[in-house]
Batch of 2 targets.
Target 1
Amino acid sequence: MLKRNIGIICRFNERELKNLKKAVQKSGLSQEAFIRSRINSRAPKAPPFDYGSIVPKLNAIGKSINQIAACANATGVFLADAYEENRMAFKKITEEILENTKEPRESESVKDD
């Protein structure tokens, strides 16, 4: 197991810190993981699109389908229209994910502003 018990203090000017935060945000990694990846010569790839906006949509669809299943289980009534609406929303999101992840993207370097 890898132990990381050595801390390093590193000072930045405002521009450098801004660039670091921008690069960390694009990478989707924690600041520590981002810096370690750069030290180890592995430039992290920026996510191809905003995963953060998709997760709540998928959670909402999952909750709706769970409620439809619970209703069907409790009452014997299947809400086909509600199910179809959620199925189509899920299909649209999965197509968006697939479209944005087909081609691997080059690592983006952060340039000074």
Note: Confidence is low (pLDDT under 50) at residues 104-113.
Target 2
Amino acid sequence: MTLLQWRVEFSVGVQSIDDEHRELIDLINNFYEKLLRESDNEKIELRLGDIVSAISMHFALEERLMRESNYEEYAAHKEDHEELLDQIYELADEFLTDPIAGGSQLEKRLSSWFAGHFAGFDARLHGALG
């Protein structure tokens, strides 16, 4: 079962960003599948750390490209990135406190945030960079 599906409207028209979006979707889907099957909370925590690292690196790439192109929505887009990272850290803490409830929240919030961010902020970025 997958949590997120790549859709054409997620494309920003920059190959490196689009490739990373696909990789993030795959990483999140793999994490979700393992979350459903895995009972070792330490392994789940490590996988969550991998997601945070990949997302952080991806955001750094997007933000560099936005700065280089003097993208007018840079500040708002960067703020959305920072909010997501804060939420992921909160979700990780929730997971460590209560793995069942925390896992459920991870599923709901990661999926909704990425779909919303791709369809909103990154769709507008496509218009500027693509």
Note: The chain has a mean pLDDT of 82.
